[in-house]
Amino acid sequence: MDVFITALGLVFDPYVLMVIFLSAVFGLFVGSIPGLTATMATALLVPVTFFMEPVPAIAAIGTAVAMAIFAGDIPGALLRIPGTPASAAYVDEAYTLTQKGQAERALGTSLVCAAFGGLFGIVVLTTSAPALAEFALNFSSFEYFWLACLGLTCAAVISTEAPVRGLVSLLIGLFISTIGIGIVGGYPRFTFNITELLGGVSFIPAMIGMFAVSEILRYATQTGERPVIPQQPIRNLFKGLGPILWRYKVNMVRGSVIGTGIGALPGAGADIAAWIAYAISKKSSKEPEKFGTGHVEGLVDSGSANNAGLGGAWVPAIVFGIPGDSVTAIVIGVLFMKGMNPGPTVFLYEPQLIYAVFIAFFLANIALIPLGFIAIRSARQVLRIPRRALMPLILIFCIVGAFAINNTVFGVIIMLILGVLAWIMEENHIPVAPAILGIVLGPLLEDNFLTSMIKSEGSLLGFFERPISAVLGVMTLAAWLLPLVLWLLRKRRSAGASAAP
Amino acid sequence: MKILRTAKTLMLATIGAALMAGAAAAAYPERPITVVVPWGAGGGTDFTGRLIATVMQKKLGVPVNVVNRTGGQGVVGHSAIANAKPDGYTLGVATVEIVMMHWVGLTDLTYKNYTSIGLYNADPAGVQVAADSPWQDVKSLLADIKANPGKFKGSGTAQGGIWHLALAGMLKTAGIDPNAAPWVPSKGAAPGLKELVAGGVSIVTCSPTEAAPLRDAGKVRILAVMGDERMKAFPDVPTLKEDAGVDWAIGAWRGLTGPAGLPQEVTDKLVATFAEVVKDPDFVDGMNKRGFPIVYKAPADHIEFMKTSDVNMGEVMKAIGLAK
Amino acid sequence: MRLNDAVLGVILLLFAAAVIVHAQTSFPGLPGQDYGPAFFPTVIGSGLALCGIIFVIQGVARLREVPLVRLGSWASSSRHVANLLVVLGALLFYILLSDILGFFITSTVLLTGLLVQFRNRFLPSLGMAVAATFVVHFFFYKMLLVPLPWGFLEPFAW
């Protein structure tokens, strides 16, 4: 208890509170600009934290990241440009809501779910970090391979109306992910001797191109009446939100659990958590046909999941010094700098420090509600700008965003090529979202398959020899085969029924 | 047409102004400097690069910004440094990969494409095994590998990366076939260590610094370091030579460089400043806390060091069939 | 630009064949392993080929109703064709010239051009382009430390 009171004292210090506030504003700003990710927000904060005490330093990063992940939803909902990769999974759903005049509902739901998921993740982090980390460390390449396979099934769930077209899109994404030098092969593939391509196709420019540039191209070639996006005053963001959230309370908890779990697995992270949560939400929904037509249910699950993933990612980072995602990879460096060396000892030597950090995270997630509200209110002004003036401005933001991820004009080239590709794909009714999923999951799938094969000396049985791996494997195969079996059964039954009379 | 004309006028006006201003060249540096880091944000190289930038900024009085240019196992970033305009406003951290990647045929770049400003860190490889494994020293580990070729796997970096060479070179020096312990590529030291703890591999030959938290958690044992002497941060860990009588030292290193052909006065200024940076209390403190040994070598020694390193790497890579 | 599925299928088949052939002929294997760098591209290529075949079958069946290529209604409107070309041209302009002209000039020209093409009047467009360029530059270059190029304006860099 003494520790807790000391920790409270460390947080409720005017300087620390001011740092939390400023980094919150910074995080909201960075997150809402496409191309600037939560990881970049963290990297930019590092030099600033050099001069701070441990608690404000870590609190600054945690706050900025939580804000950035939520803020990524804002341009996603308003302009169909995900601000950070973690928003990509449900950007179409949120944008459809805006087109129906319900931007308020989409963003309100995102905001409250983000705060809920964030708080959930922090509670898990505070109460059960060591146990959860112990479990996550049992995952080797065999388990990750199955996890990636499970992730792939999300593509099938996203594009049910035309499975073959969804599959083509997924395969295109997977192909794009093979470009460059693989970790396992160490051989440059499909690079045509272009040095910049050795690093592969960066995910951020690809995402900006496929969502935003294709949208601009669609605007440029739209003839006839343009669909008018209804003017929507965002006065009371939370009006009518209560019943919605109450209705989907199970989704909120489920999304948070999935998010925390996946976030705690090193190398998975918030973006994958959002995809999986969205797919599970649709799979288990009572009204799956409404998904993709502007339905908040999926937003609840995945909006909670990506923010919960942040808390999860700190678990292995703090307990074992193994980063859960790219943000915590940077944080580990800062922890060392501040003398809070990650490891179980961090809970023993100076527990008040680590608990103060957790309290600061908790505060940050509560502050997300009012600050996010202000951010949404100022951002919706964007909808007032006529499209003919807005589209060019979006393009310049996209260019700078694609440039910024690696500080090279090559990012702009990638954005252009994939933007045109996505435009052609959508003209031909091939969905874009599975391709993005393919780019995310490709390396996870391939690297873990190949390293598993090296370890088991080419025996595929290796995928079922470890207990967790076997369970995941059976789950994956069931997820793939069950719909097929059900479909065959139904077909046989309907054939029998029509043959009977 | 109207736009074109306006643009043209604007352009002419600015070019004119630019020429006038260019005539009055001031002393270096007069505007922000960019430091290219060929590895991702959060890694060791990024950490040291940002530390240097922060301290240099203080000394030079202009902003020093870090830019991560990742991908292609370092090729992309190293190319960006070498191809930058040699004006002293783009510098970069060159890492050990610069003496490795040309052997594989990934690039034509060698250490000769850079102007050295100074080496600041060298990080020996360590031999790490899981805490629940039977090995208490490298000697028994080597004996087991020799007796069961192919059974025990190593990890810690990508195929052909520095820690892969550390393992292969150790085996070769000990008179064992370098392929007796197959390499399981990983995205870096942390995922490799995770595999070690999860039981996926048996040995990880990354820097002991990166394994320290897991050692403190009782998950990993550091058997030896592949350096000429023990590390300050790990005084109880013997060197490979002490422990197993295998005379093999290898490690990652990092140096500040610019593209080849930096003007002499710029180089002089940077070398002098950098010699101060490595002694600055902020720098020393930061490196110590993170556990990175500071090894400073002025340009002449740095170049000599890279030359030897280049030859050694070539030999190991040929021995394990990686070099072309 | 809506293609008949048969055309789309043929394109997929050709692409898949190129991927598989390239992977199988030029990627080296991993020493002592059955699966190497060529494995995944080959699997992906095979998958794309399979989809291509399905597309061809579906497309041929509906060849009477669906033409091989049907351009969108924009293709017959010169303004919309120009729209498309200006957007693509703007991106190419940035890619090719930003390093030489620097961010300020490239961005101002690009924005003015696009705004005018999208039927905004010239002077307000120019004003907006200049203002937006300065705002973007301030936030990205000054606050977020993104090294936007200066081009030949380098001596004036701030």
Architecture overview:
With 501 residues, chain A is an all-alpha fold. Chain A has one domain. Helices cover 72% and strands 1% of the residues of chain A. Chain A contains 21 helices and two strands. Chain A has helices at residues 2-11, 14-31, 38-49, 54-71, 73-79, 91-99, 103-136, 141-158, 163-178, 203-220, 241-247, 249-264, 270-283, 296-320, 326-337, 351-379, 387-404, 410-427, 433-455, 462-465, 467-499, and strands at 180-181, 188-189. A two-stranded antiparallel sheet of chain A has the order 1-2. Chain A starts with a helix and ends with a helix. Chain B is an alpha/beta fold. Chain B contains twelve helices and eleven strands. In chain B, helix 2 runs antiparallel to helix 11 (281-290) and helix 6 (162-173) packs across helix 12 (299-319). The chains are: A mainly alpha (501), B alpha/beta (324), C mainly alpha (158). Chains in contact: A-B, A-C, B-C. Chains A and C meet through helix 9, helix 10, helix 17, helix 18 and helix 19 of A and strand 1, helix 1, helix 2, helix 3 and helix 4 of C.
Give the total of beta strands of chain C. Answer: 2
CATH class value of the largest domain in chain B: Alpha Beta
- CATH topology grouping of the largest domain in chain B: D-Maltodextrin-Binding Protein, domain 2
Q: What profile does the largest beta sheet of chain C have? A: 2 strands, antiparallel
Number of domains of chain C: 2
Mean pLDDT of chain B: 87
Q: What is the CATH homologous superfamily assignment of the largest domain in chain B?
A: Bordetella uptake gene, domain 1
Widest β-sheet, arrangement of strands of chain B:
2-1-3-10-4-11
- Inertia-based shape of chain C: flat
User: What amount of the residues of chain C lies in strands?
Assistant: under 5%
Unreliable spans of chain B are 16-25
Number of DSSP helices of chain C?
A: 4
The percent of residues in helical segments of chain C reads 55-70%
**From the helix content, strand content and strand pairing of chain C, which structural class follows?**
mainly alpha
Question: Can you lay out the helices and strands and say which pair or pack?
Answer:
The complex is a heterotrimer of chains A (501), B (324) and C (158).
Chain A: H1 2-11, H2 14-31, H3 38-49, H4 54-71, H5 73-79, H6 91-99, H7 103-136, H8 141-158, H9 163-178, E1 180-181, E2 188-189, H10 203-220, H11 241-247, H12 249-264, H13 270-283, H14 296-320, H15 326-337, H16 351-379, H17 387-404, H18 410-427, H19 433-455, H20 462-465, H21 467-499
Antiparallel strand pairs in A: 1-2
Helix pairs in contact in A: 1-16, 2-4, 2-16, 3-4, 3-15, 4-14, 4-15, 4-16, 5-6, 5-7, 6-7, 7-12, 7-14, 7-16, 8-9, 8-13, 8-19, 8-21, 9-19, 10-17, 10-18, 12-13, 12-14, 13-14, 14-15, 17-18
Chain B: H1 2-23, E1 33-37, H2 44-60, E2 64-68, H3 75-82, E3 90-95, H4 101-104, E4 114-124, E5 126-130, H5 138-147, E6 154-155, H6 162-173, E7 183-184, H7 189-198, E8 203-204, H8 208-216, E9 220-225, H9 240-244, E10 251-259, H10 264-277, H11 281-290, E11 294-297, H12 299-319
Parallel strand pairs in B: 1-2, 1-3, 6-7, 6-8
Antiparallel strand pairs in B: 3-10, 4-10, 4-11, 5-8, 5-9
Chain C: E1 2-3, H1 5-26, H2 39-61, E2 69-70, H3 78-117, H4 122-143
Antiparallel strand pairs in C: 1-2
Helix pairs in contact in C: 1-2, 3-4
